[in-house]
Specification:
Layout: E1 6-10, H1 17-28, H2 51-63, E2 65-72, H3 80-93, E3 97-101, H4 115-118, E4 122-126, H5 129-148, E5 154-156, H6 159-164
Parallel strand pairs: 1-2, 2-3, 3-4, 4-5
């Protein structure tokens, strides 16, 4: 079994890739404590012509991941070919999921949340480095405990957590 220490980021590559690039910039910025081990840095082969080949590589990345981050934009809920499949695979693997609302919402947004994760045990945060980092550090352990107790449904951090992080 692979050592799971990566963060898999799932997003709308057509509309929201700049948010992914911004996350990578947060990671590179010496003045910020934001960090993650990006699963997209793995297996960067160029044979991307077949859906089966792409899914095989994505699954390999998911198997090396300890958490799935879903960047939730306006169109994310409509993406089925890969984005929905990635979320389904993460659920199947029992990966903790952090839903990051690109519209600034701090809780699950019923208008943008992909249906496949709507009723699942997912933490929702806004797109700010401090709260995303907090979720990456804290949610996997909390998810395991909650899941073990049979919890389901959306979770979010109280406003006091955002305040403690300076947000």
């Amino acid at each position: 079994m692979a050592y799971r220490n990566k963060t898999y980021v799932c997003f709308d590559g057509d509309s929201d890739i700049h948010y992914y690039w911004l996350m990578k910039a947060w990671k590179q910025n010496d003045g910020m404590s934001f960090n993650f081990f990006d699963a997209h840095d793995l297996n960067t082969g160029r044979d991307s012509s077949l859906t089966a080949t792409i899914r095989r590589r994505l699954r390999e990345r998911l198997l090396n991941s300890k958490v799935l981050v879903v960047l939730i934009g306006q169109n994310t809920r409509y993406l089925y070919r890969f984005v929905r499949w990635e979320m389904e695979q993460a659920l199947h693997l029992g990966l903790p999921i952090v839903g990051v609302n690109l519209n600034g919402q701090r809780r699950q947004d019923g208008l943008t949340c992909p249906p496949v994760i709507r009723d699942e045990l997912v933490i929702y945060v806004s797109f700010k480095a401090a709260i995303v980092q907090h979720a990456l550090e804290c949610w996997p352990t909390r998810h395991k405990t909650l899941k073990g107790n049979g919890a389901t449904g959306p979770y979010y951090y109280q406003d006091s957590v955002y305040a403690q992080l300076g947000l």
